[in-house]
Design brief:
It is built from two helices and no strands. By secondary structure, the chain is an all-alpha fold.
Amino acid sequence: MANLPCATHGDRGGDSLKTSAAALQLLLPAAKVTEVRQTARTSEGLLAKVKLLMLMVTSVVLVSAGSSVAGTMEYYGAGEK
């Protein structure tokens, strides 16, 4: 099996995708090699939404935990000197 260049995760469908397509075309001359950017854009949009959701959930959990700890400290008198 030939070593083919592959796109990095940070790439937005640039030169490495074209390089990979060209390498596949050379490896499989009878096949039609095309770049499917629509699928990549859809997946990218979904991943961006999931990242935002995870950030929001993390923020809510941290604020809730901090409030709980602060309330517990005040209840047991740890806030007083």
